[in-house]
Amino acid sequence: MKQCECGCGSVIKEDRRFVSGHNTRCELPEVREKRIKAIKNRYDNDPGYKERQKKSHSLNPAIWTEEKRKEISDRMKGKVFSEEHKKKLSRSLKKYFSNMEVRAKRAEDQKKMWVDEIYRKKQLRSIYIGQARKPTSPELLLLKLLNALYPNEWKYTGDFSFMINGKNPDFVNCNGQKKIIELFGDYWHKGEDINDRKKIFKPFGYETLVIWEHELKNKKELIGKIQHFCEQE
Questions:
Q1: DSSP H helices in 59-182
Q2: Burial of 85 by CB count in 10 Å (0-12 exposed, 13-18 middle, 19+ buried)?
Q3: CA 112 → CA 100, 121, 208, distances in Å?
Q4: Backbone angles phi, psi at 11, to 5 degrees
Q5: Is-contact 156 171, C-beta < 8 A?
Q6: Are 174 and 181 in contact (CB under 8 A)?
Q7: Rounded to the nearest 5°, which phi and psi values hold at 142?
Q8: How far apart are CA 166 and CA 173, in angstroms?
Q9: What predicted TM-score, i.e. pTM, was given to this entire model?
């Protein structure tokens, strides 16, 4: 808990958005007094205001009790959404994540959070309880190619079995070379600078090769690229 910096003397709890009607934004005492009078005036003159406020607060997750959270959780279990609703939601998510500013901000936030060991372990437990993440189809194709070129020299680590600086590389050399191969999906990694990923692993002595998903279609060029990376000193 901390005190508001505006000098009003109110105590703000960091895990709550509102405490006794006091917003976390700092206000001068006279501004706060004026705001409180305006709210009281609305309570007196607008019969429906109190009911709307009560309903609004009931929808605020920050003040839900454990019983309320359990009730909503039980209500959502087994809820079936229509195909039309699923398609609409999918279109909305794709439009949202295609915004490069949003993607960049989310990526930066995730980098900061995944560096924290406690957060990382908690996320891995919640996502992959009792099971390991399986390779995707493009990852299986690349793994098959790596095993054909360099048998038993490359290991798939995209199952979170190996972490460096908060990142989980896809393939790591297990034959003495400190080398990493990352497979970037054309959609999910669109607009990313491959040098940013290389800089993450470089301080730990690892050289990194980034392969884009569309490069899997040209096997001859891909083999040449992998051989050049693996055989250079």
A1: 66-76, 83-97, 100-115, 117-127, 137-149
A2: exposed
A3: 19, 14, 21
A4: -100, 130
A5: yes
A6: no
A7: -70, -40
A8: 19
A9: 0.50
| The residue type at 165 | N
Helix ranges (H only) for 128-208 are 137-149, 194-201
End-to-end C-alpha distance for the chain, whole angstroms? 55
Residue-wise pLDDT for 52-69, tens only, equals 766 665 555 555 677 777
For 90-102, write each residue's pLDDT tens digit.
888 777 777 777 7
Dist. CA 10–CA 225, nearest whole Å: 63
CA separation for the pair 126, 99 (Å, rounded): 28
Closest CA to 18 of 66, 59, 65, 57: 57
Below-50 pLDDT ranges, the chain = 13-24
Q: How far apart are CA 41 and CA 38, in angstroms?
A: 5
Number of neighbouring beta carbons within 10 Å of residue 164: 16
**Are 180 and 172 a contacting pair, CB within 8 Å?**
yes
| b/e sequence 120-142, b meaning 16+ C-beta within 10 Å | beeebeeeeeeeeeebeebbebb
- Tell the residue number behind the tokens 């199952």, with chain if given: 159
Question: Which residue matches tokens 């940013």?
Answer: 196
Q: How many CB atoms lie within 10 A of CB 9?
A: 9
Tokens 């007094």 found at: 33
Angle subtended at Cα 6 by Cα 4 and Cα 8, rounded to the nearest 5 degrees: 75
